[in-house]
Known about the structure:
Blueprint: E1 5-8, E2 18-21, H1 29-41, E3 44-50, E4 58-60, E5 66-68, E6 71-76, E7 86-91, H2 100-115, E8 121-129, E9 139-143, H3 146-156, E10 161-162, H4 173-183, E11 187-195, H5 202-216, H6 223-250, H7 256-261
Parallel strand pairs: 2-7, 2-8, 8-11, 9-10
Antiparallel strand pairs: 1-3, 3-6, 4-5, 6-7, 9-11
Coiled coil: 215-245
Keywords: Coiled coil
Pfam family, one: PAC2
Amino acid sequence: MKETVVVVYEKPEIYDPIFIEGLPGIGLVGKLAAEHLIQELNAKKFAELYSPHFMHQVLIKKDSTVDLMKNEFYYWKSPDEEHRDLIIITGDTQVPPTDSYGHFEVVGKMLDFVEQFGTREIITMGGYQVPELQGEPKVLASFTDLETKERYKQILGDMVVFREDEGGAIVGAAGLLLGIGKLRGMRGACFLGESLGYIVDAKAAKSVLTVVAKVLNLEIDMTALEERAKETEEILRKVQEMQRAMFEQQLPQPSHEEEDRGYL
């Protein structure tokens, strides 16, 4: 394999689909959100993407067989005119961060593929690492252009924080799909959920998917994701307790003389 390839199993009859990306990244936020959306919509897998830019390994399955690492395309055909058809991509991996050429090549292949179905709009999902969390994870939004921003703003209102950190970056597929897509005349948005980043963050995934469902005008049952979010909260609580304990251990201990002295 010398270049990225897309293996197609079915050519669905879909019209002007929105392309939704949820690949592994910070807290696996985008991947969790995409997988839950696929499950709830009963979306159907119709293609797989393989690339020599992915890590040089295979993944072992429960039945002792192996598979190359891959990304998977799913489609959902709307049953009515009130909703848009969807193409959703998720998978095992992204290109390693040190391989810039690989990122551009893989994202280019993704866009080549979805363009065949008339895709003009992209939504990417992921995590945004923060040092600490207070309350529900915020969802940060970025857009390809001001017209798209205003259109989404009318739908979402104050559900998201519109990023204004000039010079900030969105790395990986979540950013490049919008950047390269923009050069091809596509429009879109990126939604990133706040996450500590070092745990599988279902709570942030739920926040992001709630926003995306609003954009798509879909009612998504979040029960399974909410259960995982509760597990996330419990893990976070334990981590915070451990951090507090470690911090207290690092504080200087009073000497025996200071303990005996008491208050003057």
